[in-house]
Amino acid sequence: MAAEAKQTCYEGSSVESFQFYLEHSGEHKAILQHIQDILPGEFKRIAAGKSGLDVIGVGSGGGEVDVQMLTMLQSAVPAVPITADIVEGSSELTDNFRALVAKTSNLQKIPFVWHIMNSEDYERQVKAKGDMKRFDFIHMIQMIYYVDSLADTIKFYHSLLKSNWQVYDHPDGGWDTLWKTYKKDLCVHPITEYRSSSEVIACVKSQGLKYEEHIIPNSFDITECFNPDSPIGRAFAEFHDSQGPLL
Predict the structure, then answer these.
(1) CATH code of 56's domain
(2) pLDDT tens for residues 145-174?
């Protein structure tokens, strides 16, 4: 399938639906609680002996998780200058990210470069220029569903890392079972293939890359989605119909 067919950019009312999903799923909260235990030590390891750190976030949305990670990075290595590149296809969510940065005083010291495009367009742009900026830390959240080739995407971002490549992944648990059981109903619109952690692990293994697997406990009650009289259920159904599922 063409790359543009898998691209989803949240604009207008779809941004409200996306924010609604985040608020009710608790997904970002679960991720943040987990990375607070994992990343500070990793940041110190990555920064050892370096005079500066370059970070890139891919599919960063409104920046809720990115801002927290950058703040953790600053706290872990306060004397090391940081730069941040952001790749995000939605101009509206990028504006939300910029507004969040403007309200976060400690991030004023970090120079940001904003790439308002999807991951594959960014890859094409980088390759066309032939002058690749390399990064110490790369993070991608909820974007592997929208790329044409998972293996090529992992290979490309691996090529942008300066050193110490490592993939951090978490098992899907019930999500994997749900999506594989009801694939015909769920994999529609922009998402035509659900990619679980097992697919990610298979890719990194085939490329000989190191990885760690971490469990991020999080539950999501979808009962309301089956109640036609539920406002919450209707909102999730509208989000699914307009953008495809984001789980």
Answers:
(1) 3.40.50.150
(2) 778 888 999 999 999 999 755 555 444 555
The total domain count for the chain is 1
pLDDT tens, position by position, 72-82: 999 999 999 99
Tokens, residue 149: 């080739």
Domain that holds residue 227: 3-242
Q: What is the pTM of this model?
A: 0.76
